[in-house]
Amino acid sequence: MRMMIIMMFLIEMDSILMIVVVVVVKIVLVPKMMHPL
After folding, report:
1. Distance between CA 29 and CA 21 in Å, rounded?
2. DSSP state of 36
């Protein structure tokens, strides 16, 4: 039972990390696309 809870937690953490990565990429890349050097 404990292993199942840990697995669920890890899966949720992984999805949260993916969302954070996507948001960071948008914040970092969009201004560069808008203002190319």
Report:
1. 12
2. -
For residues 32 and 11, give the distance between their C-alpha atoms in angstroms, rounded to a whole number: 32
- For the segment 7-36, what is each residue's pLDDT rounded down to a tens digit? 888 888 888 899 999 999 999 888 877 776
Give the residue carrying structure tokens 């969302």: 19
Global confidence as pTM: 0.52
What are 11's two structure tokens?
């899966």
Amino acid letter at 27? Answer: I
- Rounded Cα distance between 22 and 37, Å, is 23
